[in-house]
Amino acid sequence: MSEQPSFIPRVIGGSAMQKEVAKSYNEVQFDRQEWAKGEREKTEVEEQIISLADEVTSRVLIRFGLNPLTVPLKNIHLIRSGEWKMKAGGVTMLLEQSIYLHETDTLLQFAHVVVHEMLHMKSHGAIEIKPTGATDPGAVRLRYKINEEDPFEVSLVEYRSGMNVKSRPDGRKHFEAFTEAITERLTKTILQELRDREIFQVEQEQTDALVTTESKNRPKIPADEFVVLREEAGVVKGETFVYQKERSVLETLMKKIMEQNPDRFFTIEEVFDLFVKNFITGQMLELGRVIEKTFGAGTYRKLGAYNEDVKGLKVFVDAL
Ligand SMILES: [Zn+2]
Predict the structure, then answer these.
(1) Among the four residues 92, 94, 100, 196, which has the most C-beta atoms within 10 Å?
(2) Which residues neighbour ligand 1 (ion) by CB within 5 Å?
(3) Are 126 and 9 in contact (CB under 8 A)?
(4) φ/ψ bin of 47: left (φ > 0), alpha (ψ from -120 to 50), beta (otherwise)
(5) What percent of the chain has pLDDT over 70?
(6) 61 to each of 3, 123, 255, 273, how far by Cα in Å?
């Protein structure tokens, strides 16, 4: 067993015995990572970036009074291009306690996806024990026996991840857009700080040399939204930060909160800290109170109910 506990500090629902089963499942799962289909060994420099990302993402935990967490290398599965089936560059599986990453062409883009997924993994996580017979998609079912005549089944689902939370008992998801907006906004700040490291020097110089022209060619993209730019056979290729729409709605909401509470907030970053606190520690109360006080009772819940519908969320937030 590792010295570090698993990434899931909380188990909701179930009996005391079911909770024990769930907790020991988490611990086993944290340690038992199997080689994935299409996975390849990480290079030395990729391992260096992972360790750097681990250090800087843990600083966010420390800032909110939590202990730093390490994502072991074996819990990060790097998948070869041809074998990657998803649109996003990475995915974090909370129940499995694994991160899957698509290999990248540049180190800056690799750092971008590693930091993003690590923040998901280190944000507040909880799992829920469903009543026997529930048929939630994606549930992990564990069977155990008190004695031969008395088998029990424990059904586990993801309950909370960052700001994402499910309502009970219907299992509807809330706050997906906010979770991604917070994750990527933090990632962007962290990556801007990491750029100066020697490891990224060559790529950063290329990006700096191309950014002015590329911004003119793509005027809709602000210069600081490029993760990396490079030239290949006369063609400029680049990666940008993601979840732009989600971050834009979050920005609008934070600005409104700041403007309507001039005694409490002087900067947007102070408002953002409330969102990050919720995302990292799982404590919803403080942010919920500020939102209800500013926009009226029930607003927090309504914001959450849009889940990943960023278009609907934008209309709602613009009208607040
Ligand atoms: Zn994400």
Answers:
(1) 92
(2) 180
(3) yes
(4) alpha
(5) 95
(6) 18, 8, 25, 12
Rounded Cα gap, residues 257 and 57, in angstroms:
26
Which CA distances in Å does 229 have to 194, 211, 237? 16, 7, 6
Q: For residue range 107-121, what is the model confidence (pLDDT) as tens digits?
A: 999 999 999 999 999
Measuring CA to CA, which residue among 191, 180, 182 is closest to residue 106?
Answer: 191
Joined tokens for residue 163: 């700001």
CA of 116 to the centre of ligand 1 (A): 6
pLDDT category at 21 given cuts 50, 70, 90 is confident
Burial class (CB in 10 A: 0-12, 13-18, 19+), 121: buried
Centre of ligand 1 to C-alpha 121, Å, is 10
pLDDT digit string, tens, across residues 250-281: 999 999 999 999 999 999 999 999 999 999 99
Q: Please determine, for residue 310, whether its predicted confidence score (pLDDT) is greater than 60.
A: yes
Work out the end-to-end distance of the chain between its first and last CA atoms, rounded to an integer number of angstroms.
50
Closest C-alpha to 70, from 58, 87, 62, 59: 58
Task: Map residue 89 onto helix, strand or coil.
Answer: coil
Q: In whole angstroms, what is the distance from residue 30 CA to residue 75 CA?
A: 8
User: Rounded distance, CA 302 to CA 32, Å?
Assistant: 39
Ligand 1 mean position, distance from CA 13 (Å): 26
- Strand 140-145 and strand 151-161: the pairing is antiparallel
Torsion sign (Cα): 102, 60, 162, 287 = negative
Q: How far apart are CA 316 and CA 252, in angstroms?
A: 11
pTM exceeds 0.85: yes
Q: Ligand 1 centroid vs 89 CA: distance in angstroms?
A: 9
Choice between 40 and 141, residue whose per-residue pLDDT is larger? 40
pLDDT above 80: residue 137:
no
